[in-house]
Structures are given as structure tokens and as C-alpha cells.
């Protein structure tokens, strides 16, 4: 049903509704149905919707299905996988996001993994993000990593941004950190910017 509804303008959300219905059924056959819909060869948008519901609703089995798609050749789909993993309640989903942030061959995917990591696991995200800022060979990923720091909760992002702005050797990275500090209403950020301006 979901496959048949995908791509019909008048049923734009029908595929998503059908996938949600499948995902929320308690029957084990739902895993197999969703696994078929997320497989290579299906339309990309359908695969993305299926991946979301697999991560969001199918627990351990869903996590394993998503993991089996990590080597997919479609980098746009892998970008979406980072979001699907961020929805998974399985603890190892955090490790998978960290792995994608470090090792995915596509910079856009690595950047998205860092963003969702900051949303999902702040306690482990800061180190992974700082590693990307220091080690990732792609300048765009470094900049996305700096932005990911803004997503850390409880003021931790400001602390990390100040550290990057003070100590990072890359002037573009430092500039991005100062930019995001400027967007913050945190008094520590304003004090740091005043300090920079008074030098």
C-alpha cells in the first residue's frame, strides 16, 4: 500500500500514514514489511519515510535494519539515516552516529551525524564534535561541527564554542565559533566577544 501511494500528489501524506500504521502494529511481520520498503531499489522518499518509522518505532530489530543500510551508496539516503538513528531508543544508536560522524565517506553525512548526535546524546556529543573540528579533512564538516555545538543543552555549547574560538588553529573555524557565540544570548558569550573586541 505505502509503495503504491508514494508519489501520488493527491496522497502526499498517504504513504507516511500507511508506514506509520505498519510501524505501530505489534505484529512481527511489520519488521519485514518495513525492511522491504527501506531497501535499495525503492523510491528514495519512500525509503526515507520507512527509515524514520523503523528508527522511531521498531526498537532493537529496527536498529539492526537501519544498521544494515549504513553502506548504502546513496549519500542523500545516508544523511537521512542519521536522523533515523537519532530517533532510535537503542543505546548503540549513539555509537552508530559517532561512527558515521567519523567515517562516512561523504562530508554532508558526517555533518548531519554530528548535528543529530548533539540533539540525542549531549553527554557524548561534545567529544565527538570537538574531534571533528580538529580532525575532519573537510572544511564544511568542521563548520557544521561548530554549528552542532550550538545544539548542546544547558549552556555546554557556549562553553565549547568559547574553547574553539580561543584555541582552534584554523581561523575560519574560530570565526564560525565567534559568529555562533554572537547569536547566543548567554552572558558568557557576550563577555567573550567584548574581550575579543577590546584586544
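-> sequence recovered:
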Amino acid at each position: 500500500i505505502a509503495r503504491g501511494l508514494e508519489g501520488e500528489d493527491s496522497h502526499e501524506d498517504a504513504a507516511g500514514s500507511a508506514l506509520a500504521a505498519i510501524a505501530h502494529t505489534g505484529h512481527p511481520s511489520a519488521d519485514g514489511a518495513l525492511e522491504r520498503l527501506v531497501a535499495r531499489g525503492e523510491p528514495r522518499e519512500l525509503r526515507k519515510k520507512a527509515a524514520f518509522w523503523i528508527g522511531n518505532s521498531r526498537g532493537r530489530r529496527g536498529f539492526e535494519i537501519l544498521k544494515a543500510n549504513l553502506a548504502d551508496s546513496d549519500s542523500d539516503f545516508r544523511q537521512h539515516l542519521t536522523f533515523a538513528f537519532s530517533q532510535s531508543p537503542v543505546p548503540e544508536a549513539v555509537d552508530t552516529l559517532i561512527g558515521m560522524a567519523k567515517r562516512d565517506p561523504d562530508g554532508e553525512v558526517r555533518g548531519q551525524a554530528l548535528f543529530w548526535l548533539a540533539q540525542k546524546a549531549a553527554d557524548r556529543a561534545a567529544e565527538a564534535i570537538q574531534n571533528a573540528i580538529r580532525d575532519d579533512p573537510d572544511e564544511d564538516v568542521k563548520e557544521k561541527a561548530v554549528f552542532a555545538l550550538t545544539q548542546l543543552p544547558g549552556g555546554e555549547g557556549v562553553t565549547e564554542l568559547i574553547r574553539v574560538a580561543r584555541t582552534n588553529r584554523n581561523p575560519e573555524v574560530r570565526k564560525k565559533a565567534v559568529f555562533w557565540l554572537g547569536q547566543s544570548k548567554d552572558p558568557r558569550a557576550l563577555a567573550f566577544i567584548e574581550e575579543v573586541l577590546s584586544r
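Residues 44-57 form the longest helix (14 residues).
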